[in-house]
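# nightly structure sweep
# worker-07 picked up a monomer target from the shared queue
# config: single-sequence mode, recycle default, output format = structure tokens
# input follows
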Amino acid sequence: MIVPAWHDAENLARLLPQLAAFQHVAQVIVVDASHNAASEKIAVDTHAKFLHRVVPSRGAQMNVGAAAADGDVLVFQHADTELNEEHLRAIDRAIREPNVIGGAFYRKFDARHPRLMWLESVARFLTRHGGTLFGDQTVFVRREVFQQLGGFREIPLMEDVEFSRRLRAAGRVVVLDPPVRTSGRRHARKGAWRATIQNGLFMLLYKLGVSPHVLHRWYYRERAAHSAPPEFAVELDSLQQ
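# output follows
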């Protein structure tokens, strides 16, 4: 399991002890770009492999983790996405089917969208019928397929969207239950409706051909006063959120 991280000590303190206790997890690799001593200690204490990367870039970090992984199935897990053993059993069952090359989980809506709950069924329908598999949906893929695809594109934004398109085109992809739930920090900060509209707009622009580098610059015009390294801090959620 590969976990890209950037100043994620709090999330890692929750996630890594759980992963260490799961029998279906053979290896955990944290690829951190913040050089955070607390994150490294948590990884070491839970027997996870801890790797540094100088430049924050989620796609590049996940590629580094994949190169260091030993298993035949790669699972890409965001530090702020909840995961339990039932999810891991679902991956195990899915990957036993020889024609399944990878997949992800449906997303669980929660208290951050009290007026958007009706969209959960819409999101499930779109995901089931060829929609994008986003990074916070715990994407998994067979190692040989990942290598054939050339891994994630090391772009500042939309690396998960771009990889999802190529993964779906490569073979049979499954979307699993139970759904996963991700921290609502960004929605709490910006407001659910505003975040949802922005996500949808950026997705539309990307699919119309706007460069992820241009989208990245536009996004950071709004956040110019913040100091977060740009290539990792962007947390575009799905169009449905």
